[in-house]
């Protein structure tokens, strides 16, 4: 599905600046990264370091199917998954004719390439978003997310902005609400319960996406930062990013250096927050410090995004 750098996504008109659905995050300094030793070394969640951010705005919710539909209706935008004709769907969620189920991905057999899976058909051609208007849009690439933000008069958050907002004012906590995963036996986010990847007990109520306002918001009013869907951030991803910042204290408004060819579809871009597939047995990235990435052209049924804005 890789394509040449020159083959960029369709351009859309720049929208007038909009702060709709956004909350103002006051500037401040925080400890960025994993203070608990929970992370996978290869992800580069350490060293922890102090980051100082200017005030900014960020969406309290991930972009929904209804919102993305408005964007598509206004611009005629066609997503990368639609142009490719295929996207990745979790095997227990697939709703497609056998002939449309193309193959499993190497090393991650629970992901199936499904012909006709896209944002309108998140589980495959037989599915729709009719009942999922308030769920996060998925099967959107980083470049699709960029296009939406451009049109909406917003922008993607930097990785540092995402983490600071997800922390909700708590200092070095593991989750947006504190250090304990559950509270009185109740789930506070949408991840996986049971035996991954075959049996999900649905303790939290959801096999795949939950509505964007499911579960309590954090101290800044943000819903579902961890769990539900991964969220694209603006930055290019490098596992050595934090190590490279060593010596700066605090690091002020960090943004990863753009690669030589920023439009290249294969540039790895930061994703944050983990998804409904996260489970301690194989992927504990449902923590505020957790980092991951995917190439700018990639899409799947568990990647979405939320937007940010300068404080203005
Ligand atoms: Ca779940
Ligand atoms: Ca999320
Ligand atoms: Cu995960």
From TrEMBL:
Q: What domain of life does the UniProt record list for this protein's source? A: Bacteria
Where is the segment annotated Disordered?
A: 1-30
SUPFAM superfamilies from the UniProt entry: C-type lectin-like (SSF56436)
The Swiss-Prot or TrEMBL record annotates one GO molecular function as: formylglycine-generating oxidase activity
Sulfatase-modifying factor enzyme-like domain location is: 20-308
Q: What name has this protein been given in UniProt?
A: SUMF1/EgtB/PvdO family nonheme iron enzyme
């Amino acid at each position: 599905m890789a394509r040449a750098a020159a083959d960029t996504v369709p351009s859309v008109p720049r929208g007038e600046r909009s702060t709709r659905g956004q909350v103002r995050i006051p500037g401040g300094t925080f400890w960025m990264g994993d203070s608990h030793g929970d992370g996978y070394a290869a992800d580069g969640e350490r060293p922890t370091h102090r980051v100082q951010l200017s005030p900014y705005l960020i969406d309290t919710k991930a972009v929904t199917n209804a919102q993305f539909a408005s964007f598509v209706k206004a611009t005629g935008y066609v997503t990368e998954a639609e142009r490719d004709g295929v996207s990745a769907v979790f095997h227990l969620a697939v709703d497609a004719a056998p002939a449309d189920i193309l193959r499993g991905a190497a090393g991650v057999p629970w992901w199936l390439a499904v012909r006709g899976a896209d944002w309108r058909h998140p589980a495959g051609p037989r599915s729709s978003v009719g009942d999922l208007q308030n769920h996060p849009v998925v099967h959107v690439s980083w470049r699709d997310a960029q296009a939406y933000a451009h049109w909406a008069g917003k922008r993607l958050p930097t990785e540092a902005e995402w983490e600071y907002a997800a922390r909700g004012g708590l200092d070095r906590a593991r989750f947006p609400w504190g250090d304990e995963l559950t509270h009185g036996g109740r789930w506070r986010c949408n991840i996986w319960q049971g035996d991954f990847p075959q049996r999900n007990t649905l303790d939290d109520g959801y096999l795949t996406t939950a509505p964007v306002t499911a579960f309590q918001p954090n101290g800044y009013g943000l819903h579902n930062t961890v769990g539900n869907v991964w969220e694209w951030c603006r930055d290019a991803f490098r596992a050595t990013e934090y190590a490279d910042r060593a010596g700066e204290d605090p690091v002020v408004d960090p943004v990863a250096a753009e690669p030589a060819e920023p439009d290249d579809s294969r540039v790895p871009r930061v994703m944050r927050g983990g998804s409904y597939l996260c489970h301690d047995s194989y992927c504990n990235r449902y923590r505020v410090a957790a980092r991951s990435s995917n190439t700018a052209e990639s899409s799947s049924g568990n990647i979405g995004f939320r937007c940010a804005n300068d404080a203005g």
